[in-house]
Specification:
The chain has 214 residues and is mainly α. The chain is built from seven helices and two strands. A hairpin with a 6-residue loop joins strand 1 and strand 2. The N and C termini lie far apart (46 Å). The N terminus is likely disordered.
Length: 214
């Protein structure tokens, strides 16, 4: 799948460099530390994708992002800044919080899709406190919930988990295609469905755990 279709989401150019607050030298916008004086830098206003050196696209390598995240978290550990100035300690906390937020958004396909929509100026539908006006989706969700309620053994629940995970993976591909084509109305509906599917998978796993403990 081509990633060039997301050009609409790339209209806001991200800064390439910033000025180090300590030595006043140039620093890459996404850098944690200054290459010249090694001072920690403020997180800046980068989007989550740029922060991880990624294109703004739905299909990403979550494992690779997690590896980068863990490496950077080690570099930002409070113990490394215990003897530093108050400013550097504050900046390390800001960097860690920003990195956490970016990672939590990108690793979750629903949050990632909604973030891409917002970057493109489109507000997602559904979510907490929002009404979903899609009778077909609501019927599908009700049928899944009823099936989970009626499942009375671990094998039946296992089958549900397998089905919902398969449906979620297929839905992710559809979301990616819609975003790649800038078809945001379709992407909104598909992302709402993906949220339901992921939630049903979680509920089925929770029921499996209850059955196992009974």
């Amino acid at each position: 799948m081509s990633n060039t279709g997301t050009s609409e989401t790339r209209t806001a150019e991200q800064p390439q460099h910033k000025v180090c607050w300590s030595c006043k030298g140039p620093v890459e916008a996404s850098a944690l530390f200054c290459d010249t004086c090694n001072a920690i830098q403020p997180p800046g206003q980068l989007d989550h994708f740029t922060r991880f050196g990624l294109e703004r696209t739905f299909i990403i390598d979550v494992d690779a992002i997690e590896a980068t995240y863990l490496k950077q978290q080690q570099l930002l550990h409070p113990d490394r800044f215990a003897s530093k100035s108050a400013r550097e300690q504050a900046l390390s906390s800001q960097q860690a919080a920003t990195l956490n937020g970016a990672f939590e958004t990108l690793k979750n396909p629903v949050a990632r899709a909604e973030y891409l929509m917002r970057l493109a100026g489109h507000e997602p539908e559904g979510g907490e406190g929002h009404t979903v006006n899609d009778p077909e989706l609501l019927m599908e969700a009700m049928e899944m919930r009823e099936a989970l309620h009626d499942a009375d053994d671990r094998n039946a629940v296992d089958a549900m988990i397998k089905d919902t995970r398969k449906a979620a993976r297929a839905c992710e591909k559809d979301v990616a295609e819609a975003l790649d084509q800038n078809a945001y109305d379709r992407a909104k509906k598909l992302t709402t469905r993906l949220r339901y599917l992921m939630k049903m998978t979680e509920e089925a796993r929770a029921k499996k755990s209850r059955l196992a403990a009974a």
